[in-house]
Specification:
This protein has no helices and six strands. It is mainly β and 82 residues long.
């Protein structure tokens, strides 16, 4: 079992007036980071589920409700597309 944390980093571009968020895994034993397979479209991530790689997250867009969000679950051990 690998101990890891998940964190985000947001950058703001003053020229375009847009923010971009990147998500990263932190290996707490080594301090190494790796980019997570999702970005600005994902928010509010929590570890939950049957495996150590299961997450629950909010997607910042909803095709059916303007301004709404969608709740998803995913297993990061396989191929993942938000």
């Amino acid at each position: 079992m690998q101990d890891r944390a998940l964190f985000s980093s947001t950058s703001y571009n003053w020229t375009t007036a847009k923010a971009t968020t990147g998500w990263y895994f932190l290996d707490v034993e080594t301090g190494n980071t790796t980019k997570a397979p999702f970005g600005s479209e994902v928010s509010e991530v929590v570890w939950i589920g049957e495996t150590d790689d299961s997450i629950l997250y909010l997607n910042s867009s909803n095709e059916e409700i303007p301004g709404g969000v969608t709740l998803y679950t995913a297993d990061l051990s396989g191929e993942f597309t938000p």
